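Recall that a protein's primary structure is simply its ordered list of amino acids. Everything else, from secondary elements to tertiary packing, is in principle encoded there. The following example makes that idea concrete.
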Amino acid sequence: MNLAAVAQKDFEDAARSKMLWSLTSLLVLLIGIFYVAAWYFADDPGAVQLVQGLALPMQVIVPLAALIAGYMSIVGERRSGSIKVLLGLPPTRSDVVFGKLVGRSGVVATAVLTAFVVATVLSGLLIGGVPLAELGGLLLASILLGLAFVGIAVGVSAAVSSRGRAMAAVVGTYLLFLGFWDVLIGGLYRLVTGAFPPSPIVPQNPVEPWALLLQRLNPMEAYGIVASALVDTQVFPLTLQFPIGINPTMNPDVATADLVTGELPFYLNDWFAGVVLLAWFVVPVVLGYVRFRGVDLG
């Protein structure tokens, strides 16, 4: 049994335990409610505009689904003792960790893909149009968001030894990205420059480029940038805004280059937000594996 076999077994176990079907049903139900409500309450809603609106609930449920899918992936095996049996077979610890990453990623990606197939059908039936390019772009962005949070969850699961610690870590991480990330950056900006960043950030009051980079390291922010580029319409990230945080203007006609001092660095181009999401998929798992590799499982 190698990494691929571990990944396949993990995916099949998730399907048998109804995790896959539960996450898929949750996403499908959410999308169904969204489209039926838009059809019933809105006056001639546009199909493309609904794709833009769909990005908001995706930012709520996809990260939560990914964290639920991944946070017990390894620590659960340690609690039950089955990790000793698994490691008694040919798989190494790296096979287990990265196999779990691939397996849980498959679970989340399958759930998201199924939900978007339903969205495509409902858009055609209820709204009278199917914006395939926009739905496909949002699907890709949502899968990348899900993978980022799967990476975080599996990395945490590999690094800790108890269910309680894993749950506390993933819940704390989600709340950090949702509500406190920008505030921390604003505080750091105050320490470095002597003043809080302007709110909102506009061309007349630009900020240092590194401040926007730190903001975009939040996977929620990175998702908004990637989705906006792929859908070709403004998708706002689901984060709480505070006056002392990093709050760029919401005017879609203002370019990022106009919000920073000096030349626009490469890391503020839209494509780099995709790199950020992929980094969240990989880096936490590598760090978790480093921790897991040296742990005494006896």
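The chain has eleven helices and no strands. The first helix runs from residue 3 to 16.
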